[in-house]
Amino acid sequence: MTDPLALDPVLPPRERSERSARRWNEDLPHDERYEHFEAHVLGGGKIEPNDWMPDEYRSAVLRFVEMHANSELMGVLPEREWIMRAPTLRRKLALTSKVQDEVGHAQLLYRVAEDLGKPREAMFDDLLAGKTKFHNVFHYPTRTWADIGVIAWLVDAAAIVAQQALRDSSYGPYSRTMQKICWEESVHIMHGRDVVVTLANGTTAQREMLQEALDRWWGPLMQMHGPRSDRSKDRDLHWRIKARTSEELRQEFLTIYVPRILELGLTIPDPELAYDKAAGEWRYADPDWNELRTVVTNHGPKSQERLEFRRLNREATAWVRAAVLAEPKAAA
Amino acid sequence: MTATTIASALDAPTRTALAGFLLAMADDEFVIGFSDSEWTGIAPILEEDVAMSSIAQDELGHARALYELLAGLLDDGRDADALAYDREPEAYRHARLLDHGRGDWAMTIARRFLYDTADAARLASIGAGWPPLAELVAKIRREERYHAMHALAWVDRLARAGGEARARFVAALDELARDAPSVLATPGGEAALLEAGILGRSMAAAFDAWRSDVAGVLRPLMTPLALEPAADAARHRAAPSDDFRWLWGEFTSVRRSEPGATW
Amino acid sequence: MTDDLDQIARMLDEGAPVTPGEPPAGVLEPWEVFRQEKDGDAMRHGGNVLAPDAELALHYARELFGRRGESIRLWVVRRADIHVLEDLDLLQPPLDRSFKKPGGYVMRDKLAAARGRAGTSKPGARAASHDGTGRRSEGER
User: Fold this and answer.
1) What interface predicted TM-score (ipTM) does this complex get?
2) Residue C123: how many CA atoms within 13 Å on its side-chain side?
3) Could you confirm whether domain B11-257 is CATH 1.20.1260.10?
């Protein structure tokens, strides 16, 4: 038997490729640097904050991460209302911890965005002024305790499908942050599913509450990943800021979660929903893209109320930040 | 050995006194945990938000453990959740200090500081007489160290900040000073608890220790607070505040919507 | 005063985190967080927090990188205090340095020749190895 180590005893000179990897940081003409950058990114390489990057890449990553951070921050509000109403000690602890995690994720993501050059306060300004966006699902009301189960299970599941793909992002700090976030999110899904299964096993009123919540959340869930897009025209995909198209994400979500919803005896409010074996994909009623557009431009049922809540809260706590934080030193 | 079997070794007056003491401690932790959990998502700084939420979760965890002990002691079929949730507002035994609403950040820090220090003095008073409680208290004290560090870090910053921050903080301390000693009011049946070694010192002795703790922290920062021992009957309000009634209405709302259901 | 409080009050008095003479208010700036997951592990970079001083930076590091019990030790370092070397000419010099690595020594054929000459056979697999190649004797590949 051949000893594999005997075949190529001297380590291959992989140093060569790594050595050339950051050539764009050197004093090169812009076009050449750009070429090196592209080759590195398209070849699966990571970009770190101090690396040279084209302005278009920097702003694309910033826009993407900032919206993600905004969504975590605004996503706190619908669930937060139920922290005070959680019906057992364990649920109370789990929900508080889950919402705390969302705040923690907002912190991690704002830190990634801040290091790309936009201060946190400026990001809050833009969010509250409606200049930047947050995900559609956080513009809707939470009406019952069942919403808490459906959000933690299915909204988080839809999010984790997208976030798992982002662990491969070309922007190093973002991909590392997504690894940590995915680890924490997996607990939320367990918490949410546990709430849902408990309600499914509960009284008639509890089962009705659960079905009613699913009926309300299904539309926003199907819209959440966005309309089908043209892979070749998607710059975020080209630069591997994200790894998968919206339709790929939606299909994966349906594949994993439709059977798990149906096994509980729940009805999914889409008569067209079915797996097309021949095509190897799910068929479903076209999501209401007008609703998505309306909602993410801050015209959703709770958009203005939640933004106003954040504005008031920010004003009410400004004195605390002023007390512990000095103005940045002018010379620094 | 379960709390129930260990409790059977106690005589009836001691058991009654112990149950009252546990309920008061559990309700204190439950109410402050609920109040502080409301900061989750809206604290002044994102990093601080996560910290305050951890503290609230710790307190709720302590409440849960104390209610579980109490459930074992009472052995009347009620579990920790039933003890925590299924009472009328008048039946809660939290100290008057915790009957105030969440308030602003200064109020929250002032209350945390006064409560954490008083609670530390109370925990330090618990003896080895009832092992289930002594073992739990040893764990709780380890977690409370962080709470004290956190509260003191903020007391220092707010008091030294001057301006609006200091004014708000001093006003909050003044408002709470009247009710703060209620945490260490003498519990019913204290003599029996001391006799059984469940308490290693009286709450009056704990109060003296706490008063000098508070004075030691505040002396370099401001004029001392006037802290007077609470009258025995004054630990909790017979008629809970509107703030607590609101809190109670919230935390029981889902449970009351379908009584007896599993959640 | 209870022992714990006493200890904490002393920590505050001694003021290790806050430089004497500096007002408590600081600039919110990034602190890099390193964490050790279990005894014996290396400290690994976890991420970073914004904080006005080292004391709050440690509090926040505990929250963001330790609240699930995933760390047994944390370091925080002011980002401005980190000096970076990433010049590949210095770190990955281009010329041959295989003599610095175990894989740079190939003597299978030479060993076979030596054994042939000495009339010995290959030692058993239990012979010790210090070159990280498992149960193979040094350089024999």
Assistant:
1) 0.94
2) 11
3) yes
